[in-house]
Amino acid sequence: MMCALGAAVCFGTASVFQAMAARAAEPGTGSGVDPALMLRALRQWRYLLGLGLDAVGFALQIIALLHIPIYAVGAAMAASLAVTAVAATRLLRVRLSGTEWGAVGVVCAGLLMLGLASGEEGTGEGPPALKPGLLVAAVLVLLVGAAAGRLPDGPRALVLGLAAGTGFGVVEVSVRLIDGFSLTNPAVYALLLGGGAAFLLLTSALQRGSVTAATAGLVLGETVGPALVGVAWLGDRPREGLAWLAVTGFAVSVAGALALARFGEPPPPGPTPDPTPA
């Protein structure tokens, strides 16, 4: 669980740097899958620093996925929004409202419940169709991202965020299904394709459109689906007699993260002052 929380700190801090770099980059084609936008962002040190933090976070996430249930790791990843909010108060000089600080506290309380209730990771491998199904899901993430470029900014950000979250969710499940590197294991390709697609789509979502919609979709995509797969097919279970606490902790963590999804949304422009003296 400490590794999962460490990953959340890395991912949450990286998001601040990557959002700054993505918004400073020149506009791209408008497509959800825009490699040129990624290349422009890579020219900025903030984005490179964010990628370095992502690499450390991913290593910690893998360790966590190999020792605790997916639902606990997913909730910790959603909690990275709380880290993003706190980091932004330092790096972006923004101020959190009392409600936003309350949401940070809610996320922490939910994670504490999960930490107390989570058992060890399951030992199931799921049905035979699960590994190729993950690869199909990763391909669909790319296709949805390409199609989302034609949507208006509001729905576009939500769809891209949800697709990016699904891509990260594919990575979470794939890690559990890889037992030694093998080129014949579809989960290996699902991990690579799902992770790469998620980065592309998330960069596009942050570059244009609603931060609220993008992050809300991201939280839902990377938590709910993988958690259900872990419980239904991979044998993830809470500690004996603490299922209620695990369910409550998961729900509270995700709800707090969704409340924080409003953080970072630029305020609506106010009325233009009249330059004519009274």
From TrEMBL:
The keyword Thylakoid does not apply. Residues 1-21 form the signal peptide. It comes from Streptomyces goshikiensis. The chain crosses the membrane at residues 45-63, 70-89, 101-117, 129-151, 187-206, 212-235, 242-263. Keywords: Membrane, Signal, Transmembrane, Transmembrane helix. This is Integral membrane protein. It comes from the Bacteria.
